[in-house]
Amino acid sequence: MALDQQQPQASLESDEQIQIQEYKERVLSSYQRLHGEIYSLDPASFFVPSFLKAVTPNSEENLKSIMVQSAPGIYTFEMLQPKFCEMLLEEVLHIEKWAHDSKSLIRRPGTLNTFGVVLDDFGFESMLQKLLEDFISPISQVLFPEVCGSGLDSHHGYVVEYGEYRETDHVAYHMDDSEVTLNVCLGKDFSGGELYFRGVRCANHMDSEIGEEEHYDYPNVPGHAVLHRGSHRHGAKAITSGIRANLIMWCRSSTFRATTSSRKDFPRWCAKCRVDRHNSKRPE
Ligand SMILES: O=C(O)CCC(=O)C(=O)O
Ligand SMILES: [Fe+2]
Question: Could you tell me the distance, in angstroms and rounded to a whole number, from the CA of residue 77 to the centre of ligand 1?
Fold first, then answer.
């Protein structure tokens, strides 16, 4: 199985280098919001009580009480209220209708996601940044100290959709351009579409073989989140009926990216580096 590194889509078309900032300004000046209340973070109405309780006050013990480590390095937990999921899905449909009616292009979320909406382009940037800083970064510092020790400080936030009229039903095997990825299923009714995970690798070993113990398939549950390393190789299987939409946030750490020592650290978390190092130390 060959693996891609998924990147955000830089421009609307390769021969038309429209600057993202100009694009956002144009969108923001003409798009009329449907649910204004979901553009500012309101923890009590966005999150389920168990998530809120676990993160406030933010203690390691509280956090670990709701996080299930479903497989090594993959944490799952209930996160979003059904009402919030519904409103976000309606907003996404409203954005798509606006794009259709105004003959505007929508920047696709990534090089592999052909259908969806970059929320940051439509006014959700500060809400998602607050979600990152107040919730996802502190959680990730506890769960993924090897890459998030100094905290996460930027994001790429989008909704992906699969199924009828959505051009595609799956996403190919890849790694994300993130330290940590938050992926929350918004609904609605679908079957299939499981996320599959195949082990964490550094950039040098993206395509290396998959260990038997590295296979893990996760069935999406509306309102439930998966938190995983961006370098945890993954993809999404085809849905077999209905429409699936997920909120995804690629979370990054500028400190981690700027630290060269972080690159020498691969054997701490890349299984292939670990094996190579072990083999090179073995006497002939
Ligand atoms: O379909 C999904 O839920 C996962 C998509 C994904 O991995 C991505 O957008 O990077
Ligand atoms: Fe991904």
Answer: 17
Q: Which atom of ligand 1 is nearest to the CA of 246?
A: 3
Tell me how far apart the alpha carbons of residues 214 and 269 are, in angstroms, rounded to a whole number.
13
Say if residues 66 and 193 touch (Cβ distance below 8 Å).
no
> How many structural domains compose the chain?
1
In a domain, 48, yes or no: yes
**Average pLDDT score over the chain:** 89
- Alpha carbons 104 and 10: distance in angstroms, whole number: 17
Residue range 5-58, pLDDT digits in tens: 777 765 455 444 457 888 888 898 999 999 999 999 999 999 999 999 888 776
Distance (angstroms) between ligand 2 centre and the Cα of 58 equals 27
pLDDT of residue 14: 47
In a domain, 234, yes or no: yes
By C-alpha distance, which of 147, 178, 156 is closest to 252?
Answer: 178
Q: What are phi and psi of 150, to 5 degrees?
A: -95, 10
Place of tokens 């390769």: 14
CATH number, domain at 120?
Answer: 2.60.120.620
Instruction: For residue 231, give the ligand nearest its CA.
Output: 2
* pLDDT tens digits, one per residue of 148-163: 888 999 999 999 999 8
In a domain, 11, yes or no: no
Instruction: Please check whether residue 121 lies inside any domain of the structure.
Output: yes
Locate 175 and state its tokens.
Answer: 């790694």
Residue 224 contacts residue 177 (beta carbons within 8 Å):
no
Predicted confidence (pLDDT) at residue 60 exceeds the cutoff of 90:
no
pTM of the model: 0.91
Is the complex ipTM more than 0.95?
Answer: yes
pLDDT classification of 198: cutoffs 50, 70, 90 = very high
Domain hosting residue 246, numbered range:
20-281
Ligand 1 atom nearest the C-alpha of 176 is 10
Task: Reduce the DSSP state of residue 99 to 3 states and report it.
Answer: helix
